[in-house]
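Protein modeling request. Please complete all fields; requests missing the sequence field cannot be processed.
Requester role: graduate student
Desired output: 3D structure, token encoding
Chains: 1
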Amino acid sequence: MCRLRLLFLPLLLALFAVAAGAEPLALDRSWSGHTINAQMQAFADGSGLRPSAGVLGHADLFVEPARAGAGLGGTAHWMRLQLRRSATERGQAWWLVVEPLNLFDLRVYRRAGDGGWQELQSGERVPFAAGREREWRQFAFRLPDDGEAVTELYLRAQDPGGASFPVALWHEDDLRRHERIGELLLGAMYGALLALSAYNLFLALSLRDRAYGWYVATTLSLGLFLVHLHGHLAQWLWRDQAWLTSAGRVLIPSVWGFALAGFVMAFFQTRRHLPRLHKVLLGVQALYVVCFVARLAGLHGPSAQLLTIFPMFCVPLVFAVAILRLRQGLEPARYFLIGYGTVLLGTLLFLLRIAGALEPSTLTELALPVAATLETLIFSLALAARIKQLDRSSQAAFVDELTGLPNRRALEQRFAELAARDQPFTLLALDLDRFKPVNDSFGHHEGDEVLRVLARRMQACIRGDDLVARVGGDEFVLLLAPGSGEAAVSSVVNRLLTAARETVHLGERRHQLSASVGLARFPSQGRSLAELSRHADMALYEAKQSGRDCWRAAVRAV
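Delivered output (558 residues):
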């Protein structure tokens, strides 16, 4: 047994050495801008409480390749890097850059002059200037130049709301160019979001449409979240207030989620069309308020974790609302689905990067701001299409679908306008004679065509301020504007009778009809539409009794 142990011990030690003592990274210019997590070794401290002295220098703990993220939880993720500069890179300025979307606690350990370890504290838990060695929104640290010797570094990343720690090496010249391009692209996206917000705020104030107000709130909170997410709020506004940087990652998206739920309710008019889902959306808003308050109370971990879980419930809910409203006939819901799907894809890449399932890259870093900008633009188009459809629907509510003439609602509205002037005007009740046989002999389709022809003729008989409305099968009501003397009224009525007598040609078929008209005057025969119509109907009945194809005026005054 003792001999077996002696035989296996060197083998075990050799395997251990392979795992713990991988070849140092050979640093040359080709590594500039590349993620090196796969070239690092990892150790996960599940408790998150292990002191640094129990990790630093203990290469035997690091037996797995490092990842760029590790999802939710309080685990402290340690990474070990060994590198040796090539001859051409000795004396050159290099940077170790950690580019997370969020990271609460980041610590970097470098060899100090006395052989010990120098700790650099960074992340959202420390102020901006104190946590960086470079004036930049990302976490950048100078890479020691140890000449031909091997450089050894350790990183510790911890975030209960989703640890993301992509590590890259950058040459000074390449990093400076990378900074300029990134700031330019992000600035363009921020500007686009701000411009769309300003434009739609003007529309919100002009149209007094709640959907536009919620859209502006959603866009501004989303833009603020992106500015925070990419480190610019900490760099520009909160340099000395670390708690705002840390709290902002929960507070700002909570406001965004609250505003988005409000926009969904206003855009789709869920209170009226989807009352049950409307209550669910109100519940979603309440949950975002709870998340907001929890973070203000100092519950960083639970609130960040809840915020990460919310999309699993909210995304299917919003899609369900959009699809149901589309099936109910709201065509702008198509725009909404495209826009929401776009930002969902960007958010998915964002969450996968946080969870460590995707390696960091320019695509995954800019996926959310690009998607958010496109979503905001598409939502703006959706709002414009919604206004047009609502306008068409509003106009359709006052139009007779068959003839295109104003309907009873339009008649009531016009009567109220004329009555408010308190000037005399005339109401005509017109009924077609011998129309029923057309329907009975040729069918309702034929009758509909006859009505369309006669409606166009009647429309041609009136003046610009007059109105002719279809109020029933073959029943029409006309309002002749104030200022119409007896001669003018008589002229209009006679034109109507003549138009009704003219033969209606439909293909080879000819239909001969006529009309009977009853006339009543405002205010002598009534001040309400019902009262005036009753007197006009009585006069119409007299015209029918007198042989049809004629008109009679109401004579009894009120």
